[in-house]
Amino acid sequence: MWRVVLRGFLQVRFFITADPEWCSVLKAFAESPSKKQFEWRPEGTVLSTGSASAKDIVMEILRLYPPTRRVFRAYRWQENTRYSTAENRSTEDPKSYKIIAADIEACHLNNDIWGLDAKAFRPLRWHHLSQEQNEAFMPFGARPFECPAKAQFGPQMIGLLIGILVSALEDNDSGAKINWRVTDKDIVQCLSNARLDMARDAYGTLELIGSWEVN
């Protein structure tokens, strides 16, 4: 969860291509965390096509940065079926399980499914998804072993945490403006529009440094 939150926060707050409205929408959701607010677009209707809702933003974060990059399942087929082949059995134990991995990350970044901008952060793509895109999107796994957080809790918690982080950088008792910058060299190289690294040990040296704006 925190890997997703960190990358989503950096994406909406520090990327050169970030739309300031994304932060405003997430802050509004953090102040009023409800399903209605989560789905609200700035025009005031979930049917509008001009701006992104908190849900649109979070779904795009989950697409680019799925919490689980691969899902592994163990299968064992009954003997004498068309699936009971040498390829699907261990050479050491004919009755052993075969481990199969579903590459969630590959499904989320496939150009044939999401277009040539598959690795770009574009929340507005969630206004109109094709059936193929809906089927390829599975950040919380797929039936029958979906994460129970899929429907509401997981996405809304991500939106809430990012909204709180964004607000924390803007609020201060003095009322003076603070300019924030990222110091990690690997992230700075990505802030133009590249997708951030999802490795667990990535960005261990990340720091945010604030400087007071003097009038």
Automatic annotation (TrEMBL):
SUPFAM superfamilies: Cytochrome P450 (SSF48264). Transmembrane segments: none annotated. One of its GO terms (molecular function) is heme binding. It comes from the Eukaryota. This is Cytochrome P450. It comes from Penicillium decumbens.
